[in-house]
Amino acid sequence: MAKLLHPKATAVWLVDNTTISFKQIADFVGMHELEIQGIADGDVATGVKGFDPIANNQLEQEEITNAEGNPLYKMKLKFNAAATGEEKRRGPRYTPLSKRQDRPASILWLVKFHPELSDGQVGKLVGTTKPTIQAIRERTHWNIANIQPIDPVALGLCKQSELDAAVQKAAAKKAADGEVMTDDERRKLVSTETSLEMEAEPKIPTAIEGLETFSLSDDSSDDDDASDADFTDADSFFNLPGGDDEDEQPR
To answer: Where is the composition biased (Acidic residues) (predicted)?
Structure first.
């Protein structure tokens, strides 16, 4: 969608040269109605020269005429075919110099925890090239021994919403191709907000795997007998063996 050039200067020109209401001008230039009133009062945009939107091929005279005749009419920016798609970002994502050294760590994290992502998706998320991604996948990168995987969201290389969207898209493509995902891969498709709200699943240690069906028998009858036992004297309490009376007498 095309955007208006010099909105404040255009507002100044419309205030000085038309009888359009402040609300209509504010809606057209993307400013607040009070700012337009401030321009008319001379409190805002002092010294700003008016920018003629008609002479600069941004607005048709017919739009101004319609707006002056109808206070509810909303003026529309003149269509410019050359400006179509200008809001879309072209080329690879720009990464600041201070964060470029963190890209290998983020690539390794994506390759390790989201292998379903293609090289193109990883490149768009962190702003890198396919040869670099391939080198990290094959562990042939010159500094692979010193690279530790770090979440690109934590590094500020991409947004969590962008990562979730890429993962969901990769999962849909994988499902369309007929590939079956494992449980671990399916868990990775859950967004961060959802995963934080989920309860942790109980896990069985591998050392006792296969013994989960066995349980220690709870013999309640033995406990009852033990509780009913008489421990009034020391011999019965400590279960001491009885001795001969002759051995107990001093010699």
So the answer is: 219-233
